[in-house]
Amino acid sequence: MSVLDDILAGVREDLELRKLAVPLAQLQERAAGQEPARDAWAALGGNDSPRATLAVIAEIKRRSPSKGELAQIADPAALAQEYADGGAAVVSVLTEQRRFGGSLADLDAVRAAVDVPVLRKDFTVDAYQIWEARAHGADLVLLIAAALSDDQLTEFLELTHRLGMNALLETHTKDEVHRAVAAGARIIGVNVRNLKTLDVDRTVFAPLASLISSGALVVAESGVRDADDVSSYAASGANAILVGEALVSDATPRERIAQFTAAGAAARKNADAGPAAADDGHAAVAVAANAAADDGPADAFLSGAGSAGAARGTPSLRHAPGPYFGAYGGRWMPESLIAALDELEDTFEKAKADPEFLAEVAELNKNYSGRPSLLTEAKRFSAHAGGARIFLKREDLNHTGSHKINNVLGQALLAKRMGKTRVIAETGAGQHGVASATAAALLGLECVVYMGAEDCRRQSLNVARMELLGATVVPVTNGSQTLKDAINDALRDWVANVDSTHYLLGTAAGAHPFPAMVRFFHEVIGEEARGQILAQTGRLPDAVCACIGGGSNAIGIFHGFLDDPAVQIFGFEAGGDGVETGRHAATITLGRPGVLHGARSYLMQDEDGQTVESHSISAGLDYPGVGPEHSYLADIGRVSYEPITDAEAMEAFRLLCRTEGIIPAIESAHALAGTIKVGQRLTAGKDNPQETIIVVNLSGRGDKDVATAAEWFNLLDEQSAEAAIGKEGEQL
Amino acid sequence: MIGANISSKSAAAIDRAKEQGRSALICYLPAGYPDVQASIDAGIAMAANGADLIEIGIPYSDPVMDGPVIQAATTEAIANGFRVESVFDVVAGITAATAGTGVAVLVMTYWNPVLRLGVDEFGRRLAEAGGAGLITPDLIPDEAAEWMTASDKYGLDRVFLVAPSSSPERLQNTVAASRGFVYAVSIMGVTGARTAVSSTAEKLVADTHAAGAERVCVGLGVSHADHVREIAAYADGVIVGTALVSAMRDGGEPAVAALTKELSTGLSPAGKETDQPS
To answer: How far apart are the first and last CA of chain A?
Structure first.
C-alpha cells in the first residue's frame, strides 16, 4: 500500500462522517448562496499573452507525511493575508486533517481574510468534496490523477467547471500527464515528489512539463527551496509554482513570495528570448501540430491570430483579438478608409489599456445605462421550455431599451479621443440609431443615421425618437432599402468625411478592429450574466441562447461562457418565412463565405456573388451577413446556429408577454423561441427538468415592435391609425 | 515591382501615349449597361475616339465606392439580367475589335464576385478573353495573397488604389504590389462628377512616384476636358467614369463616343499651353 493509498483510506472515513453531518442538498444550498467563484485561471496568468509571469500559489500547511511538523500556524487568516500582501496569486489551504493537520475551518478563515482566489487542497475522491469546496467559498480544487479513474477525472472536472471553479489537476508521470490533457484539464500540476518513496526529484519536471501542449497552465509542485529552484522551474515551462514548506518555515514569507515572483518572471523572459524557448515555444508548435491533425479550434485560432505572440499558449476563445478569426475577418475595404481604421485600432488598443478610459466606461454603464442589468428567472415561461429553469439577461432594461447602448457609449468616447466631432451610424430596427443619437447627445457630437427607407416605415416611432434626440435620419433608397444598404451609404459618407467623422458601426461585423472592438464593449453582458447565474443557482448554466443578426448581443453574452466547455451555446438566426422558402436571413445556416462590408464571413449570396436580399419580420435581424467571429465559432463547432421562423418568434413573443409580463423586442423573441426548443431538447426524458438551467439574452424591449405585433396578431381595428402604421408604416 | 518580368498590357498602353508626348486616357463603363452588346459597342467606340485603356466595371449589389450615377447604372444592369460571366464576353468583344491598336482592357470589380467564381478561375478566364488585369477598389494588398498568385500565373495586371490618406508605408507597399499602374483617387470620396479636381491629387501622384511607381493614373471626379488637362500635367493617365456613364444613360453610344473625343483633347500639352497662357 502506497502512502497515497493510506491517506485516501483516511480521507474516505472522514468524508463519510461529514456526509452524515451535512447532507449534499444542504451543501448545494450553501454553495448557491456563495459569492461566485473568483477566476483562478486569470489570476494564474491564463489569459496573458504572452505568458510572461510566474504566479505563486502560496500554501498554508501545518505538517506533511514527508517532513512531519512544519509550523504551528495559530492564525491561518493572518498568514494568508501576509501571502496576499506579498503578491501570491492564489492561497492554498490544506484541509486534510489526519496527515496535514488542516480543516474546513482553516479554509473558512482564509476565505474571509483574502480577496485572491483560494485553493481547497485535499484529496478529492467524491463529488461531495467539490460541492463542499464551493460551499466554503473555494475557487479552485485539487484533483490527483493517481487517485482517480479517467471517468472520475472527466466527471469531477466537469462539475468543477460547472460550479464556476477551476481545478488543479496534479500529475506525477508521463502517463498521468497524458490523461490530464485528454481529460481537458486547464491547469496541470507536475508534482516532483515520488508518491511511493516521497523523495523529491526536480529533474523530472522539465520532461513532464514539455508534454503539456494543450495550452493548459503548468504548475510546478514540491521541491521549491529558494529562488534558484523557482528560476529553474520557470525556465523549464512553469507558469506557476505551488510552495508551502519554504513559506511556512520562513520568518518573512511576504518578501520571499515577492522574491520568487521576480526570479520566475526573469527566468521566463530569458527562456522566451533564448533559442530553446521553453514552454511557449513548444506549446505553440505542439498546438499547431495537434490541430493540423484534427483541424481543431486551436489551429484555426492560431492561423488566424495574425501574430504568433498573440496566440501562443492562449487557447481561450473569449479574447480573440482579430483581425482574423480563423479564416474570417480581415479588412476588405477601400484604401481610402484604411488610415481611419488604423487610427481607430490604435486609439482602441490604447484606451483598452488605460484605466481612466475603462473607469469612464464603467461609470457611464452604471450611472447612465443602469448596469448591471438584472438576471430574471422566468418561472412561468419555463413550463413551455420543457420545465427547464430559464433566466433572462435583461438588456431590455438598459437606457434606450437594448444592449446597443454598451457599444455606442464606448465608441462615442473613442470618437472624442480621436478628436472627431461627428458620428454616423446605420440602423435596422432603429435600436442602434436611437442608441447612437443618445450617445451623441450626451457627449455633444453631431449625429447622422442612415436607415433603409423600408425600415423607416417599419420603425417610424424610432425615426421620431432619433430626431427628438437631435440626430438627422437619412432614408436610404438604394438596393433593398434595408440594413445592408444603410451600411453602404454610411461607408460612402465615411469615405468622404473621414477627417471629422467616426463611423459608429452597430454590430460585431465589418472591418478590423470593429468585430473585436464591438465585442469588447458588450463583454460586460456575459461577465455579468456569468456572475449572476452563479450567484443565483450556484453553478453555470447548461445552455446560453441569443439571437443573431450581425451578432453583437450574442457575442457579448457568449464571451462570458466560451471557455466553459460544460456550457452549450446557441445562436438563433432569422428564418423568416422558413429557410426552405428562400425568404429568410439565416446567414450561417444557409450562406457561404464571402466578403461584405469589410470582413470575410458567411454571407447570403447568389451564384454570381451578388448579395441576396434577406427577409425577416425583425428589422434588426434582417441582414444578409454576420460577424466574422460567429462564422469562426460555427466552423469549430463551439456555438450551434439554428434558424427561427417569423411564426416561431412571434409565438415566443406572445408567450413571454403573457407568462412574464415582459414585451420583448422581436429580435429577442427569436432567442426565446430557440430557448423553448433547447429547453425541450435538454429536458427530454428527464425526471427533474428543473435541474436544467438556460440563460437567454433578452437583448431589447418590444415597445418599438408593438405596431408590428398588433398587426401580426390581428389586434387592430382595420380603420385605426395604428393599423395603418402596422401595415404601411406611415412615417411619423 | 513583384513579377517585373511579366509584360503589362496596361503599362504598354500608357507608355505608347507617353511616346506621343501625352498622358493616357482611361475610360470606364459598366458591363451589361444597358445590355451586354451595348457595352461592347460603347467600349469599341471609346477606343476609336481616343481612349488608351478601357475599364469595364462588373455591376455589383453593394458598390460602396460608387456614387449615385454609377450605382443606378449597375443596379439597372443587374435588373436587366446581367451575369458576372458576361464580363468575359464584353472584354473579348472589345479586345477582338481593337486588336493591333494597343488598347488595353481592364476589369474593375469589387472582390466578392471574383471570390465567388474563384480567384484562379477568374484570372484564367480574364486572360483567355484578352483582358489586361483587374482594378480592385475594395481589395488592398494586405488581403490579396490569392490574387497575387493568380495574376502572376496568368500574366495579369493588378491595379491597387492609393488615397490622399495613405501613409508613406502603405504607399510603398501598394506600389510594390501593383503592376500596370497605380490608381490614385483624387479626393476622399466616392465616384461622381465634381466641378473641380482637388489639389490633393497632385501631391498624391508625386508621393506615389516617389514611392517607386512608374505609372500613376488619377480618377474620381474627372468629368470634362479641362479636368483632363489639369491632371494630365502631372499624371501618367486620367481616368473618367461617371461622366461617361451619364452620357451612356442619356445618349447611348454616340454620346459616349463624342464625350471620349472631347476628353481626349485635354491630353496633349499643346492644349494646355493654349488654354493657360502664362
So the answer is: 84
pLDDT band per the 50, 70, 90 thresholds, residue A313: very low
Residue in the block written with cell 418561472: A379
Q: What are phi and psi of B95, to 5 degrees?
A: -65, -35
Question: CB-based contact (8 Å) between B33 and chain A?
Answer: no
Alpha carbon distance B138, B90 (integer Å): 22
> Which residue of chain B has the CA closest to A331?
B143
Query: Are A339 and B185 inside 8 Å of each other by CB?
Result: no
Domain membership flag for residue B193: yes
- Is A724's pLDDT higher than 80? no
Q: Is A492 in the B-facing interface, judged by CB distances under 8 Å? A: yes
Domain region containing B220: 9-264
| Mean pLDDT value across chain A | 89
Is residue B73 a part of any domain in this protein?
Answer: yes
Residue B216 lies in a domain: yes
Which residues in chain A have their CB less than 8 angstroms from residue B67's CB? 492
Confidence of residue A314 (pLDDT cuts 50, 70, 90): very low
Q: Name chain B contacts of A597, Cβ cutoff 8 Å.
A: 62, 64
What's the ipTM? 0.94
The residue annotated as part of the active site, out of A404, A420, A677, A704, is: A404
B84-120 pLDDT tens trace: 999 999 999 999 999 999 999 999 999 999 999 999 9
Task: Find the angle CA(A562)-CA(A566)-CA(A571) to the nearest 5 degrees.
Answer: 50
- Chain B residues within an 8 Å CB radius of A330: 142-143
- B18: domain CATH number is 3.20.20.70
Residues 6+ apart with CB under 8 A from A110: A60, A76, A77, A80, A91, A93, A118
- A333/B138 touch (CB, cutoff 8 Å), yes or no: yes
Minimal CA separation from A501 to chain B, in Å: 13
User: Could you confirm whether B250 is annotated as catalytic?
Assistant: no
Interface mutation vs chain A, best among B60, B188, B216, B218, most A CBs within 10 Å: B188
pLDDT at position A315: 64
Q: Is the pLDDT of residue B232 over 70?
A: yes
Question: Do residues A171 and A177 lie in contact, with contact meaning Cβ atoms separated by under 8 Å?
Answer: yes
Residue B270: what pLDDT?
52
Full-model pTM: 0.80
Q: What is the mean pLDDT of residues A84-88?
A: 95
Is A534 in contact with A37 (CB distance < 8 Å)?
Answer: yes
Min Cα separation A47/chain B (Å):
28
Reply yes or no on whether the pLDDT at A116 is more than 70.
Answer: yes
- B140 to A492: CB separation less than 8 angstroms, yes or no: no
- Number of separate domains in chain B: 1
B199, part of any domain: yes
Amino acid at A105: A
**CA A168 from centre of chain:** 21
CB nearest B188 (choices: A498, A594, A596): A498
For every residue of A133-202, DSSP letters joined together read HHHTT-SEEEEEGGGS-HHHHHHHHHHHHHTT-EEEEEE-SHHHHHHHHHHT-SEEEEE-B-TTT--B-G
Residue B217 and residue B13 in contact, taking contact as beta carbons nearer than 8 Å: no
Whether residue B196 is predicted with pLDDT greater than 90 in this model: the reply is no
Q: How far is A344 from chain B (nearest CA, A)?
A: 14
Q: Which three cell numbers stand for residue A367?
A: 450611472
pLDDT tens-digit series, residues A567-597: 999 999 999 999 999 899 999 988 999 999 9
- pLDDT band for position A387 (cuts 50, 70, 90): very high
Indicate if A404 belongs to the active site. Answer: yes
Could A334 and B137 be called an inter-chain contact, meaning their C-beta atoms sit closer than 8 Å?
A: yes
Are the beta carbons of B188 and A496 separated by less than 8 Å?
A: yes
Q: How far is B192 from chain A (nearest CA, A)?
A: 12
Contact B111 A334 (CB under 8 A): no
